[in-house]
Write a structure and sequence with these properties.
With about 350 residues, this protein is of the alpha+beta class. It folds into three domains: about 80 residues, no CATH class; about 110 residues, no CATH class; about 120 residues, Rossmann fold (3-Layer(aba) Sandwich), CATH 3.40.50. About 15% of the residues lie in helices and about 40% in strands. It contains five helices and 21 strands. The strands form six sheets. It has a five-stranded mixed beta sheet with strand order 7-8-13-10-16, with no helix packed on it. Strands 17, 18, 19, 20 and 21 form a five-stranded mixed beta sheet that branches. A three-stranded antiparallel beta sheet has the order 1-5-4. The longest helix is centred in the C-terminal third of the chain and has 15 residues. It is globular, with a radius of gyration of 26 Å. This is VIT domain-containing protein. It holds the Pfam family VIT. InterPro entries: VIT, VWF_A, vWFA_dom_sf.
């Protein structure tokens, strides 16, 4: 008697789903995006005709998972599921970070359903890689290094998924990780259109030299101070943050995320100031500046997390004047402005 298999696939909020296919014997069922009712109708029609069909849809009860149905699977038949997720890698400790959550590997209550697992990741880079940290008991099985492409393949496998207790985490750095990169992509499905992405990892100080030798470490947690930098003079970093109503929604959230990344990238023993503004402006330290230590950093991050786009008006001149003239210091000032730019007094601002 044919079976209907129900799988619940976890998915993180900031991941996008790419290709989805299911292979049953020699047959490959390729997924395509349809409206929900249309997809359900096609699935039901195929099942009624005795055909094997697949339906993937968002789980209405759990927003962090996808429900996958495989209909009319015969007893003793096996199915292989292939799907792709897309995401931009996070930056942690001055390194790119890829995390495979342990809950991607289902664990069943009964031990007789335990299964082998095989985790494999391939890192492709057009810039030389000089640091890789991989999971405990993992293995680097392949490295390719030529003038155009750098490939590192890492494998971790085991006889029982029940032994997996922690997320599988990969860190890596390239020799030019602090450089700004611009990526473009074309697709035949969207003629005359180009998708662009700019990648920037904020570094407030200049790196001395790039290590050319590749360092491979097991279960290492990278730290920003692992990178050697050229010490500069006494600096104060001033962040001007637009909190006017035009920044409401995604704009203020992106500004807060960017600001926190900047704060955590500041060199030790430097100083910083945050001035938020609308028509009026306010400082988190009464325009005196804060020394970059753990106490002040935690204080600033807490303040930033509470920022809302709720200040009336918008006047870019006020915070600029406060930063340039109102903050009295002998330190070198570096000013960063986070705004949507919606101020008509552009000539005055310049």
């Amino acid at each position: 008697m044919p079976l209907e298999i129900v799988l619940h696939l976890p998915i993180q909020e900031d991941y996008a789903i790419g290709n989805l296919s299911v292979q049953i014997g020699d047959q490959i069922i390729e997924g395509k995006i349809l409206r929900k009712k249309q997809a359900r109708q096609q699935y039901d029609d195929a099942i009624a005709q005795g055909k094997t069909a697949v339906l993937a849809e968002e789980n209405e009860m759990k927003q962090d998972s996808i429900q996958l149905l495989i209909g009319n699977l015969l007893p003793k038949q096996s199915a292989t599921l292939n799907f792709q997720f897309y995401n931009v890698l996070e930056i942690e400790g001055g390194a790119y970070c890829f995390k495979m959550p342990v809950y991607y590997f289902p664990k069943y209550e009964c031990e007789k359903y335990a299964y082998d697992y095989h985790f494999q990741i391939e890192i492709f880079s057009d810039i030389p890689i000089n640091y890789v940290s991989y999971p405990t008991h993992g293995e680097v099985i392949k490295m390719t290094n030529d003038s155009e492409l750098f490939l590192i393949k890492i494998v971790k496998e085991g006889k029982s998924v029940l032994c997996l207790e922690k997320n599988l985490i990969i860190y890596y750095r390239t020799q030019q990780i602090e450089h700004v990169s611009l990526y473009c992509q074309e697709s035949n499905a969207y003629p005359n259109q180009i998708a662009l992405m700019i990648s920037m990892i904020p570094q407030m100080i200049e790196q001395i030299a790039n290590e050319e030798d590749l360092v491979l470490l097991e279960n290492d947690i990278p730290q920003p101070q692992d990178i050697q930098f050229e010490p500069l003079g006494d600096e104060i970093y001033i962040f001007l943050v637009d909190r006017s109503i035009t920044m409401e929604g995604e704009k203020i959230q992106l500004s807060k995320q960017a600001l926190i990344i900047f704060l955590k990238s500041l060199p030790l023993n430097s100083s910083f100031e945050i001035i938020s503004f609308g028509e009026l402006c306010e400082s988190i330290s009464n325009y005196e500046g804060l020394l970059n230590d753990s106490t002040n950093l935690n204080y600033a991050v807490d303040k930033v997390n509470k920022f809302k786009a709720n200040i009336l008006g918008k006047n870019l001149i006020n915070p600029l004047q406060k930063a340039i003239e109102g903050l009295i210091t002998t330190k070198n000032k570096k000013i960063f402005l986070l705004t949507d730019g919606k101020d008509n007094r552009r000539q005055q601002i310049i």
